[in-house]
Amino acid sequence: MAEFDIPLLKSAIRQFLPLGRSGLLPSLHAAQNIYGWIPREVASEIASELKIPLADLHGVIEFYNLFYNKPVGKKIVRVCTDPVCALKGSDQILKHFCAANQTNPGQTNFDKSITIEHSTCLGLCDLAPAATINNMAATNLPQTGEPDTLSMPVSQVYGSHNLLTRHCAGNKSTTLIEYGTYAALQRALLMRPDAVINEVKVSGLVGRGGAAFPTGVKLEGAYTAEGTQKYIICNADESEPGTFKDRILLAYDPHLIIEGMCIAAHAIGANKGYIFLRGEYSYLLPGLELALSEAREAGYLNNKFDVEIRLGAGAYICGEETALFEAIEGKRGLPRIKPPFPTTSGLFGAPTVINNVETLCNLPVIFEIGAEAYHKIGTEKSPGSKLFCLSGDIARPGLYEIPFGHTLRELLHMAGGLINGRSLQAVLLGGAAGTFATSAQLDIRLTFEDLRKAGLSIGSGVVMVFDDTRDLRDTLKRLGQFFAHESCGKCYPCQLGTQRQKEILERIADGKIEPGDTERLKDIGWTMTDASLCGLGQTAAAAVISALDNFPHLFLADNSAN
Amino acid sequence: MEVTLTIDGNTISVPTGSTILEASQVCGISIPTICFHTATTSNALCRICVVEIAGQRLLQPACIVKAAEGMQIQTKSERVFRARRTILEMLISSVDLSDAPEILALVEEYGAASDRFSNAIRREIPILDDNPMYIRDYSKCVLCWRCVQVCAEDAQYTYAINFSGRGFLTQIATFFDSTMPASTCVFCGQCVAVCPSGALKNKREFLLEQGVTPDQISTMNSGRKKRKTKPE
Lengths: 562, 232
What we know:
The complex is a heterodimer of chains A (562) and B (232). By secondary structure, chain A is of the alpha/beta class. Chain A has helices at residues 6-13, 24-35, 40-50, 54-63, 83-87, 90-100, 176-179, 183-189, 193-203, 215-224, 245-252, 254-268, 285-297, 321-328, 357-369, 371-376, 408-414, 448-453, 472-486, 492-509, 517-531, 535-539, 542-550, and strands at 75-80, 107-108, 114-119, 131-133, 136-138, 157-158, 231-236, 272-277, 306-311, 352-356, 385-392, 398-403, 424-429, 435-437, 462-467.
């Protein structure tokens, strides 16, 4: 016991004790910041202080990628090897880095100075190849792997509209003075909650995280729900491969997000809000905390409504709303059965509105220009502007804010077309959970209704571009590895299906497809789609099924790379 | 109060609040289950009980979805059969079902091929034999959660076991893999009683299966049965 400074731990977690079980993730983060990992004695102490069963605490540490219950190196390097970074050579960078440090991926070197790991998407796709080094972002990595300096990622923001991205062009966080006043909130506060909700309904705003649920209806559900304790949650767990729009909003315009949360809080009568920030974005914490304290000083956050940040610990599944609640409550991030829905029973069982970062940012825009003016942007069924994340073999990767209704061809043209004059093979729309569009589908309008008719998806707004030199079997393999890595393991279709799907995709990428493999992929894929408990399993085969339909040549026995 | 619904063409009325699984039992329709147990909270995680409900895009678990007025349910549609058969094929390719006769019966019933998935990683873990009451053979564990639940709020509130890992590599585990005697386990036997696949087995039963004779088992225990006699 004397080996670990327990008094240091006790003082670090003292502030979390009143939270009980909900204080677990913050306490584990604090412990890891002190010791570099979570030794048994430390875990035992946390369990005792927070009054949590030991086995439960063990289960939580084991669930999350970023918590270690074995010693790790002083430096932890996570190199992304998901599709976009892989296109830019991250496999070679990882190999080179490991060789230079005499270790292997997933291992710690002999003097425990460094641990190097594969990582899933870090939300830095426009700056690929990317990694984090001791939780700091390292982007545009050279082939040797060593970045020159570590600094805040600098993303490019484009597009014809800047309703959402008005403060994102300067590559630095916007202070409250630069932001101005929360004028939209002040307008909303003069309206009754039901009038606020009606305005959001009239605007036609739907969720921007991928599920596209009408925001006004969600607010109304929580508003009418019974209970005096209600919550607003900002889902900042952005982890969909190819997505980085929320990172940019969080980094450059935190007040837009906070103002949106305040408007939503007024609409439903919430007194408490949380920003659940993915663990791999911990470098954004100082900027967010500063913005929150500015908002408190100005009185926008007060004893009627205040916001707390909770840091995730590495689990894509925690982007699923009910799994996110579990994480805040200090448990393994396992999705809940729905119904009940969050608007009636959400965080701590209370009525909760949980929205994506971009969705919340639309609220101040709506109350600034008015719902009718907002609805005139975009199309009738898809109003407003959308943030699209362009990455891969595109000349100008970055964030594009455009109104709904542009075609995919127009968007690719805005982004400079394919790099090096190559031709297009495929576009993955929506991320790992998305679908492939072919060059025959470039004139489809980017709206919910047009894409749905074509069997495609907007998802979170990912537009991942693959030129004609790319081996899509390698891409599918990585998507399969992603889902197997991120499956929570609760329901059988996904727990088993993502693993089996991965194995088949790996051998296909190796050129070793077996008779019956396409039928297996279809059976697994449709079983996961039809019978999984949550959206992760339900979309884990979307890209594969889309590839089976659009690129059957990838699944032929004698297929060589291209 | 009652609700009227149709299951596989049969129109029945059941008490309000009945699940589809309960309703199916009323009209003698058999819906398979694995993780479901009358004594544990239903988590709808095996998904083998999924049925097709008119108007719902996705298949729904019968063990928790409540029967509603006018519901039209198909328990034997193509989509349902494909899901059930595939789940069974994936399960049998992952764990040892030799001690799970009810699940093996389902494998037979749904025509699930035990060799559908080749080069498939199995969950194979050495048997944990660390106490005199029961063994843990997690190569047989189907992750139905029943043992974790009865050790927690469903029965004992002892919290000796939880999970390690995530996804396919999830396992039942104690705190930092301590032995059962070093955990909070009180050897109540509830977990053994609810295990559907023989992953948790009474030690005596296990020894008898291994060919150890009853006499040999007595000898193992006899040391503990001696009472201390007070010195005169």
